[in-house]
Amino acid sequence: MRSIKENRGITLIALAVTIIVILILAGVTIDALFSENGIINKAKEAANSMNNAVANDQAELNDLLEELNEIMNSEWNNNIEIPEENTIPEPDPEEPVYTEDGVLVPEGFYYVGGKKEEGIVISDNAQDENKGTSHETAKTLRGNQFVWVPVEDINEFKRYEGYLDGRLDEKLSSCIEPNLSSGDIEKSEYEAMYSSVRENKGFYIARYEAGTGSNIERNENSGIEDEVVSKQGYIVYDYIGWSNSNDITNQNGGAVQKAREMYSGKEEYGVNSTLCYGVQWDATMSFIDPEFKTGNCGSYSFVVNSNNKGCYNTNKSSVTGASESYKTKNIYDLGGNVFEWTMESDNQGNNRIMRGGSYGVSGSKYPASTRSLWFPSYKNIGRGFRVALYIK
User: Fold this and answer.
1) Phi (first) and psi of residue 381, to 5 degrees
2) How many domains does the chain have?
3) 4 Cβ contact partners less than 8 Å away, ≥ 6 residues apart
4) What CA–CA distance (Å, rounded) separates 175 from 354?
5) Does residue 298 lie within any of the structural domains?
6) Which residue among 155, 196, 255, 331 is the one 20 to 30 A from 380 at the CA level?
7) Residue 29 lies in a domain
8) Positive or negative torsion for Cα 333, 338, 341, 347
9) Where are the beta strands (DSSP E) in 285-386?
């Protein structure tokens, strides 16, 4: 019994000691937290110091910005233009436009469709932009259309012998270009065209034979001096001479003058227009069949046999671009429909040269590459022309 009482006494003493210790610790903790030098007061002092430092830094930054602003607005810097915030620069209206293949679309024209290898088509009407090159689409286009003929190697930009009745002809040796007897006009035009082709690596040729803008058939009594168009479905502009004179150096009137009037001298367009030169015609033949440059075209090549690829063996010419089968490289009627005047002439000084065939002959005998010689003022049905463009 004694030992039990002794143990109870010891337990009460331990409990009392524990309580006293807890009270002492609580007092110390409260003092550490809430006294004048306690943790909470120290934290408040640290926060106040941080806020004061931030305020001081902001004030110094504002002072620096004011000084910078004064410098920017000083007389020393008055001539410097500072762009407005979020300003988007206006596009330059003079900025050149190129197709995806890197072909320049001249000022005043719009990309219609096509790739370099198949024939890029442009139009002088904005409503035709990006419409495409299919035959059905061509019927709906409103502007005059032209096709890019690439000339990657200027050394190959020269005239080549054409074909007649399935074999190489023998006319090239008797033909010249330009005709130096014609004076400075023809010589300077040729040189400007050649330089443009060299610089731009190509030129544009009319997509269609020249059509008559009024769509009125021409004849010996019509006396019509009509607008020239390069559009689908128009009456062909035939019954026109190379010029109005049998002097091959006289370029007044006729196809040569009508071709130049189309765009040359008009500042809104970035091109000059001419009657197609022989070298341009032959570059187009080479574009269609690269073997044309070698003289080794196959018997079924378009430049050797244009039957079924143009209006041949009929009693009358068709409208421009009448059939999709008359199209090659997006260009229509290079073979058939009407013979086409060019700037070539014979070296005897008597004739100018027509190219291609006509509706009244055979496409196997008179394919697209054929040369025919006629005196310059000759006018008849089945004789027309085609316009070419070179970039200014």
Assistant:
1) -65, 150
2) 1
3) none
4) 11
5) yes
6) 331
7) no
8) positive
9) 327-328, 331-332, 339-346, 352-355, 371-374, 383-385
Q: pLDDT tens track of the chain, all 392 residues?
A: 444 344 445 576 767 667 776 776 766 555 655 566 666 666 566 556 666 655 666 666 676 667 666 655 554 444 444 444 455 455 455 789 999 999 999 999 999 999 999 999 999 999 999 999 999 999 999 999 999 999 999 999 999 999 999 999 999 999 999 998 888 899 999 999 999 999 999 999 999 999 998 887 776 665 566 899 999 999 999 999 999 999 999 999 999 999 999 999 999 999 999 999 999 999 999 999 999 999 999 999 999 999 999 999 999 999 999 999 999 999 999 999 999 999 999 999 999 999 999 999 999 999 999 999 999 999 999 999 999 999 99
Residue type, 39: I
Q: Which of 217, 216, 211, 218 is nearest to 234 (CA)?
A: 211
8 A C-beta contact, residue 385 and residue 245: no
- Cβ contact 366:345 at 8 Å: no
Q: Which of 113, 297, 142, 300 is nearest to 213 (CA)?
A: 142
Backbone φ and ψ for 74, nearest 5 degrees, come out as -75, 165
Residue 213 within any structural domain of the chain: yes
Q: Structure tokens of 290? A: 């690269």
Nearest C-alpha neighbor of 376 from the set 339, 341, 347: 341
Amino acid identity of residue 138, one-letter, is A
- Please list the residues that pair with 383 across neighbouring strands: 339
The answer to whether position 311 is within a domain reads yes
Please indicate, yes or no, whether the overall pTM of this predicted structure exceeds 0.90: no
- Per-position DSSP letters for 32-81, written without gaps between them: HHHSTTSHHHHHHHHHHHHHHHHHHHHHHHHHHHHHHHHHHTSGGGTTPP
Q: Which domain holds residue 184?
A: 112-391
Block residue for tokens 């689908």: 232
